[in-house]
Write a structure and sequence with these properties.
It contains eight helices and 19 strands. It has 360 residues and is an alpha+beta fold. The chain has two domains: 228 residues, Naphthalene 1,2-dioxygenase Alpha Subunit, Chain A, domain 1, CATH 3.90.380; 109 residues, Rieske [2Fe-2S] iron-sulphur domain (Rieske Iron-sulfur Protein), CATH 2.102.10. The chain has a seven-stranded antiparallel sheet with strand order 2-11-10-5-4-3-6. β17 and β18 form a beta hairpin. The relative contact order is 0.17.
Amino acid sequence: MWVHTGRLPHVLAPHCYHAPEHHARELAALFAGGWHGITTRDALRSPGDFITTEVIGEPVLVRNCDGEIRAFQNVCAHRHSLLTTRPRGTSPRMRCQYHGWEYDADGRSLRVPDARSFVPIRRGGECLRRFRVATLGQLVFVSLAEDGPSLRDALGEPTSTLIEQVVSSDYRQVAAWTIEHAANWKIPVENALESYHIPEVHPKTFRKLSEARHATHTLTASFTALESSAPPSQLRWIAARWRRAPRHVYAHHHAFPSLLLAHTDISSLAQIVLPTSPTTSRSHAFCFVHGGDGRQLLHRALAPVVQRLVERYTREVLREDNVIFASVQRGLAASGHPGVIGAREERVHAFQQYVARALA
């Protein structure tokens, strides 16, 4: 059941999706001091494993340092080159690709080629900038702020507990994608919060609208959630053979501003949308499959098939969504209409209210 019974105002004006000054206010108010999910433990399973990315314009390197996950600014303390442009890899030490400076697990200078030319110089005298890093379930988060609330306090207990449940060690990561969106970050977020677009955008995957009686919406000041008792029929068939006591529920959780969690009895999807400019954004998406319980022989036989089906299905849904975003962005740039939101889209309305309050 929905909380509202009819139409709602479109809280954010079209310029909020492309104006540089509005974008700058959102970065400062919503993202600068927050925690951002950027990778998983699977990408950093062994000492020396690392990934690089950008977080709201900041080059970041996250590395397994002898079993401890640490995050650094991906910038050499010598003459400011990116340490590496590789998106992921393994190396015995952090080493700058430009002049070969090396750094230890704390980010302190360890080896400087031709050190005599830098006299006076001392070992560990130059350091990489460190960022706070924390994990929850299998997700790895980074904060660019030097201080502030812990990850758990920032996300809140309902979201933190849900992450621990739906991406726990019972789940295996089967895919990860970095998706570039030709759209303001709020467009892919809002798309994930409503099912109204399904008949047009997902005719081969989700296929049709669910009935209001099958859906329960939860609207709060820090997150919204959907629970549907009518997941796609193909998922119900697999779940009945995969889990001992399946709930046959599709659930979706949005932790403000841009952490999205979708889960069923057999799979979970974590998606984090980050702004890259007023009219572009990037998603980090991670797909997991539950290991199953009971009937182990059946699970071992079906596991590769189930994992492949979930990966393909999820990838196609994400692709179908991404195709429409550029058109939405172009329309917002031209629109002179205030817009309108239906009750089925009330989670979009709640999200827009959150943005408006945060910038007020």
